[in-house]
Every structure is written in C-alpha cells, then in structure tokens.
Amino acid sequence: MTPAARLQAAIEILDEVIVSARDDGPPADTIVTRYFKTRRYAGSKDRRAVRELVFRAIRTVAERPPSGRSAVLALAKFEPALLDLFGEPRGPEPIADGEPAAPHGEVPGWLVPELSPHVTSSEWPALLERAPLDLRVNVARTSRDAALTEFEAAQPTRLSPWGVRLAIDSRLDDHPAVESGLVEVQDEGSQLIALACLPLDESKVLDLCAGAGGKSLALAAAAPSARILATDSNRSRLSKLPPRAERAGAAIDTRLLNPPNERAELADLQGEADLVLVDAPCSGSGTWRRSPEGRWRLTPERLDRVVELQARLLDMAAELVRPGGRIVYAVCSLLSREGAGQIDCFLSRHSSWIVEETAIAAGRLDGVGRILTPGHDGTDGFFVARLVRI
Questions:
Q1: What is the DSSP string of 326-390?
Q2: pTM over 0.85
Q3: Is 345 one of the catalytic residues?
C-alpha cells in the first residue's frame, strides 16, 4: 500500500469506529482486525502503519467527530505531511476550501466538571499516552525475581510487589510463563485493587463483578486459603475464568448472575461474606490510554446509567457482608460521581458502615478513598475505597 492508500484505509476504519462508538458496537481494535481480514493484499507493515494512524487520530480528538476524514484533518495539524497525501492516487479526495477539521482535545468538554479535582489539565496528556505492558506474577507458584528472568528487558513495577513491566510492544504469544500460568497480563493499577482487599486468610470472598476474573486470580494467588466465588452477568466474559484458574492452579468457583434477579441468586451468601469486591461497571475513563475511543462512546445518559448501576451493586453487596466484614469498591474511572461521590452517597444510605484506609501506599486521597491516575502513578486510572460493616 502507498502512504496515500494507508491514509484512505485509516479514514474508512475511523468512519466505522465512529458508528460503533455511537451504537455501542465493537472496539476499535476489533474493527481494524476485521477491516484487514477482507484485504489480504495488505502486508504486516501496512496493517501496523494504518493501525497507528487510526489510533493517533483517535487520541487527537476528544469528542466523537462527524467523520473519519475530519479526525484525520485534526491529526494533520500536528502531522502536516499527511496533507500532501490528499488527492494522491488511491488516497483521500483533495481537501475542499474551508473543509473543517474536528476540534483537538484530550477530555470531552462536558466531562471536565465531572473529573476528580486531582485530574487537573496538567495530567490530561498522560490519559492518552500508550499504556505499558504489565504482568502480575502468580506468587502462589513463583517469585517476581524468578519471573523477571523470563522476559527480555523486564523491570519490577514501582507500586505493586507482584508486578513486572515489559516494553510496550513486547509479544507474549505462546510464552511458556504465560501458558503455564506463572504470570497474567494485568495493569499495575488493577493489581493494587487486589492488594487493597488483603489480608484475607481463610475468608469467604465474593468478586461480584468478576468479568474474566483478573482480580479473582490475583486474590487466589495472594491468599490460597481464601474461598473465592466469582460472579458476573456476562456469560462470555465469565466463561474465560475457569481455564485461566486451572492454568494458574487457583481454586475459584464461578456463578453466572441474571439481572435483575441477583439478590435471589446470591441468597445463600446473605450476611455471610467476609469481603465483597465490587469492581463495578463504569465510564472507563481511567483506561482511555488503552481505549481512547472510549471518550467517543460516553454520553451523559450512559454515565447516569452506570452511576445508578454502581449504587445498586453497592447496596446489594452491603446485604451480603457479615458484621465486621468489608466491601472494597473500585472503578476504573477518574470521575468524582463514580468514585468519591458514589461512596458518600452509599454512606448516607447506610449508617452501619464506616470507612477504613486502604492497604496500598499509592495514589492520593480522594474523599474517603484513593485515586490512582496515569499522570501521578503510571497506572490506569482507578478509584478504590474500603468499607467496614459495624
């Protein structure tokens, strides 16, 4: 493919990403992969170059643009050589007089008032930098020192005692340490959420929104004697956990929930759990460096819906915890309504709960919890709070 053809391909993909973001369809990575499945003539260098163009354009525009072309024109303000490719054979049509580019930005304007006070404009560029590749060592089976020798140029992470950081473009396909369950891909911030749940000993633990089970696996490795039940309402995601647990040598039970019947389906745990981890669905604003088109997906209405869901999950978790037990609440969000504000509302509804300091020396105090940010901590963005039933 010529450079002009690559640019045209990027525009076509961006058009699909824009529609997918509007309609809550597949992520940009999936769209890129699907695009090239029907274009076998594109070599690996072409695919890589187009993918990088797509994501550079996405990172340049904060709010969903009207077209892929307008997003590329926004990128061209920072990469003016792209302008020379318009009108070239197999490239985009020539630029019309006065043709507008999408506005450049890092945070959608309507979201700025929603950000935690810690996420000032000086930190915004870090929200869109390429994320590192972090691994979590399965400390039930090996040590971090041993794991570091398995990977080229590996470094220990700064905040998590379980973490190993690799170069961004490291390839893990068929790596024996991954295949044998000695390590799992997991951002350092996500590892710190699991650390905030400790100590567990022989506790009865419920991972209420387990997804594919990354945090359940971390808890099982750190506390092998804990009894862990991982639940989720997404069958596809939860089905990934049993084979991962078998590979890691972890004893984790799973249970598929069917909203809005979760309370009945968890009736056997009422007042029984020592700890409920509520890693709640959220805006995903803490993971924009991995999924920058997440900014294009979020709307005020979608934010209202996830905030309402978070409150419902917290109220449900409160019913499942024994006296003296705990909730650890976490969201991969940098928005106050989903973090400190959500916990303030919970405490106003539940007088029998108090706040306990999290057991992690990372992040900054944000209300009654802690917030981790890419700019301050080098992790994905997370809010975490630890609550005790008295």
A1: EEEEEES--BTTTTHHHHHHHHHH-TTEEEE--S---SEEETTEEEE-HHHHSS--EEEEEEEE-
A2: yes
A3: no
